[in-house]
Amino acid sequence: MSDIARAQAEADAIAALLGTHGFDPTDSPAPLAPADEALLERLVRPRRDRRRVLLQVTSAACVALLALVGILGVQSKHSAALAGPPPTLKFGTASAQELFAGTAPSASTELRRLADVAAAQLPANEVGSPHVESYAWYSTSETDTEGSTTTVVQPVFQSLTVHPDGSVTSTEDRSSGMDVNGEIVDRAVDPTAGQVVTDELPAGTLDPTWARSLPRNDPAAMRTAMIDKQGGDDFCLSLGDGGIPYCMLVTTQDMYYSSPVPSDVAASAWGAFADEQGVYLLGQTVDRVGRLGVAVAVLEPPAEGVTPRADIMIISPTTGQLLSWEWIDRAPSEPGGAIVSAFQAITSSEFIKPGTAGS
Amino acid sequence: MVDHASVDDIVAETFTIVWQRWVDVPVEPDPRRAWAFRVAHHRVQHWYESKQRDVRLHRRLAPARTDVADHAGEVVGENDLATLLALLPPSEREAMWLVVSAGLSPTAAAFVLDCSPSALTSRLARARQRLAVILADRAEREVTR
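The joint structure predicted for all components is written out below.
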């Protein structure tokens, strides 16, 4: 039996099953009234004829252009095909399996070294509006009871500016949309693929000075600030095992997501993480945009019925700045022992003159 | 699932695209329906993407915010087919609705969903097995009432 015949047989069996239980599964549209038919004719017929004539007239002149577009289209499709669901990164010290098994080493020593690297950086400009550009893949996976997983992957170029009054301009360019099978959506069918979506959030949404006001070269004060930002010790501890480092990690992501982070603030953060248990070293890696980094990870507090997840931070060994972060979900059957559910790589982070971008 | 307020928007956007691309729309009725459904399928995907974007933004901007579950399904009649279908995972629900309810051929449904006939068959088989369990459970509960 062919796949098509099997599919039809399954559909017939579903219809019969629903019928047995009193459901009518058919959902056929009602026939159009004559007046609606006439309206439809008026809407579509002239347009079709007019466009067809226009196409015939212009087709000869477009041959050369189409040839060029065809070549570019092939190149574009080829590069987009590289954007399949991302494999897990390779790490120099410990694997994702070791991380989830709890056998990865502590990151304390490496984090202290990174804190020293950050503290040794020359001061940079801290005047202006925070502006951060990044490249991210967000995916949503759903696994059914038979273990079949459906994943939607969304590659996004994001640009975020926090204006002096705390208003935010966030622009996301979904430039290469993927379908549920992880394939590039055919633009001929969906002309809105690749649209730029801009959110304008009102004054007071984010504090443009927040990252600059955090403790500098003071890990203990930084630890308190990072935990307070997420609701305090009691709240973070209530999340379960690993709640404290997880809260600190979320604050770190918030910092880098919305602002350049001064090097001595970064030094405080890495020093605070170095003093925590439950921060693991994955080691040297290359992030999604090709930069050398050191990966450290925190296991998210476990929750019943939820696949264990780890948050990975990739830190530059030369500047002590956060380069990227990733979320990975434990998946013992996968080659890397995990599935990447999202990542974000900061490609540019600077203070800009107010009004020069995103407004 | 797509909320009621967004359904009208998605339908309007779908037919706007169909109208704009009318010259490319197949002439035969069945392929034409499949073409329109495929546009609608992508509009629904974009709706989900947009929702997820909102969720990401809210997660950043209000980490302590807790979402309240939508209980609309609880007040819908139990015999409503839509309520039953809502219990299926999206990929199975879509496959089932296209072939069983909308009456598309398996070939056309596979075109709409951008998947192979084999994948479509798997989704339908899983939907059937899941529905059998759900319906048997409902029947059992009705007997014990």
